[in-house]
Amino acid sequence: MSSNSSPLIQTITPERWVGWSMDFIEAGYTGLLVKNGQLVRELTPGRHFSFAIPLLEQCQLILVDNKIRNLEIISNGDFLSRDQYLINVSLSVMYQVVDAKRIALELSDPIGALTSAVKDSLGVAIGQLRVEQLTSQGRVHVRQYLLDHAEVSYALGFVLEDVRVSDISFPQTRGIIRQVEGMSARQETEHEAGLKMQIAEAGRPSIQPPVQQVNVVSGSQSEANEPTLGATLETPNLPFKGQSPTQASLPMRDQPVLAPTVLAESTEGGTSTRLVHKLSGAIATLSATPFTLGREPSNSLIIEDALCSRYHTQILQQPDPQGTIRYQLVDIGSSNGTFVNGQRLVPHQPCWLNTGDVIRIGNQEWTFEV
């Protein structure tokens, strides 16, 4: 196995004598001979000779380490379980380069791309199991899922040789954050007691009682009945469902606040199909298809949420079997999943939308209206 202290890619300018150069490629490396920015040929381990016209042709030798290397991934509450608990995961991925040309010449940050691909698959694997399942069989499930769904890594030029999950645990400082509201006090107590017992049986340290997360979206409506981003939402300081009077008495600034969502600009005379934010009433008109949602500024609807992926989901217009034009929601491989009426979507599998459906992305809920 190659040491991670050695670089994955090295660029060398060979010394030449009257235009000629002799290059030696060590075992475990692939050489790429580049002349004037163009790949000339791929070099296998051994001795190779090359010629370049002095002053007219510039040659570089790129060495790509194709030995098995190790990538450590440690997440701190980046993923959600099926029952909506934050999960910590630490794992080690052993990978190998299989496409030196793509790694060296086409990707600006190959290790970053591999890390992102592994984390996306990891989020899907974590989202398939509940907390009690993760404590008992999480390591085996995560390892097998990552090895069985390594197509994206292979497309990047890597092959995953093995995955070793060292730990699956829960955030200790923040406790468990319950994302789903509506549990009674008795249900919360029973759930907490059962979870502590499962963790104790699995040899985990005890965790703090769950803290319900209260999301408040900043924004107040203007005279034109359109949301104004960055404004303050005047909300009565009353207890939320499932919230204790002590929590309700806290100033609004001391409660978790969801960052404002940047809305896509709507077009005049466009379709009336829209997404309405459940808390703030903010409206996003589906003025184009595909209508993409995520954190990146290039999306149709920019969602500022830590649990939202850069490119999270998209809405498409498609004819149904009867020929009627309808809308489909497709999760495009997000880390923490897309939910419709409480049900998590299978990545890349379209879901027909009906008016009134509630779409949840991270901590935000949007109502689909036609």
Write a brief caption for the model.
The chain is an alpha+beta fold and 370 residues long.
The SS-based structural class is: alpha+beta
Work out the helix count.
6
Gross morphology is: flat
Distance between the termini: 57 Å
What's the count of strands? 24
Please state roughly what percent of the residues sit in beta strands, choosing from under 5%, 5-15%, 15-25%, 25-35%, 35-45% or over 45%.
Answer: 25-35%
Strand order of the largest sheet: 15-14-24-23-20-21
CATH class group of the domain at 69-169:
Alpha Beta
CATH architecture of the domain at 69-169: 2-Layer Sandwich
- Ranges where pLDDT stays below 50 over 5 or more residues in a row are 172-184, 204-270
Order of helices and strands: EEEEEEEEHHHHEEHEEEHEEEEEEEEEEE
By CATH's scheme, which homologous superfamily of the domain at 69-169 applies? Band 7 domain
User: What average pLDDT do the residues reach?
Assistant: 76
Rg is 26 Å
| Secondary structure: helix percent | 10-25%
Could you name the CATH topology of the domain at 69-169? Tetrahydropterin Synthase, Chain A
The description of the largest β-sheet is: 6 strands, antiparallel
Characterization of this structure:
It is a single chain. With about 375 residues, this protein is of the alpha+beta class. Among the domains are: about 10-65; about 70-170, Band 7 domain (Tetrahydropterin Synthase, Chain A, 2-Layer Sandwich), CATH 3.30.479.30; about 275-370, Tumour Suppressor Smad4 (Sandwich). The chain is built from six helices and 24 strands. It has helices at about 100-105, 110-125, 130-150, 150-155, 185-200, 245-250; strands spanning about 10, 20-25, 30-35, 40-45, 45-50, 60-65, 70-80, 85-95, 160-170, 175-180, 210, 220, 225-230, 275, 285, 290-295, 300, 315-320, 325-330, 340, 345, 350, 360, 365-370. It has a six-stranded antiparallel sheet with strand order 15-14-24-23-20-21, with no helix packed on it. It has a five-stranded mixed sheet with strand order 17-16-18-19-22, with no helix packed on it. Strands 1-6-3-4 form a four-stranded antiparallel sheet, covered by helices on one side. Helix 5 links the parallel strand 10 and strand 11. Helix 2 crosses helix 3 (about 130-150). The radius of gyration is 26 Å and the shape is flat. Residues about 170-185 and about 205-270 have low confidence and may be disordered.
